[in-house]
Amino acid sequence: MNPIPRGELARKLIHITNLVIPLSYLWIFQNQITMVGILLFFTILSIFIEMFRVRSSRVSSFFERWLNFMMRENETSGNITGATWVFVGAFLTVLLVPNPYAVLGLIFLSVGDTVAALIGIGYPLVRIGRKTLSGTLSGFVVCVLAGKAIGLPVDDLVIIFGAFVAMVVELIPSPVNDNVTIPLSAGLAMALIGSAL
């Protein structure tokens, strides 16, 4: 097993806590308009933090001291962080994807992306660009298991197809951040297949 860098491990541990978004939508804020409003608020707040991170020396110093170790090179140079993209992706997914497929898409982002990255770093079998087949397959399996475990009234075939789409999108390089493309693509794909079954 290859060692997983401390920064990447911390980043992915935070990423798994993004489960609070779909689980809140499933169990607490079940109204779509309410959830869209909450996510819009956090998206705007994150964008303001991003602006202050670049323009305020105090905020920038805080990031450098406490968070830089887990940030990617493009993020430390001023690009939008993955955390903000998570809120953008969640907002668009809840806005555009019907339930329960929005919940599943967001769960796939949290667990699938996390496991794919950690397994891909720790056990890198068959490199595909910057990713690995071992990471993609493990992410797919975890997405299917999580999709089944949550107990939503969704056909197994739909869950499997959504997990497949999520991990293909995670695998393929894209100019759009995968915190947006994974839940949106998987959610829309499941909605399409689910309506056809």
In short:
The chain is mainly α and 197 residues long. The protein has ten helices and two strands; from the N terminus they run αααααααββααα. β1 and β2 form a beta hairpin.
Describe this structure in words.
- This protein is mainly α and 197 residues long.
- Helices cover 74% and strands 2% of the residues.
- It has ten helices and two strands.
- The chain is globular.
List keywords for this structure.
197 residues, two-stranded antiparallel ribbon, mainly alpha, 74% helix, globular
Rough outline = globular
The end-to-end distance, rounded to whole angstroms, is 42 Å
CA-atom Rg in angstroms = 17 Å
Low-confidence stretches: none
Rounded mean pLDDT is 95
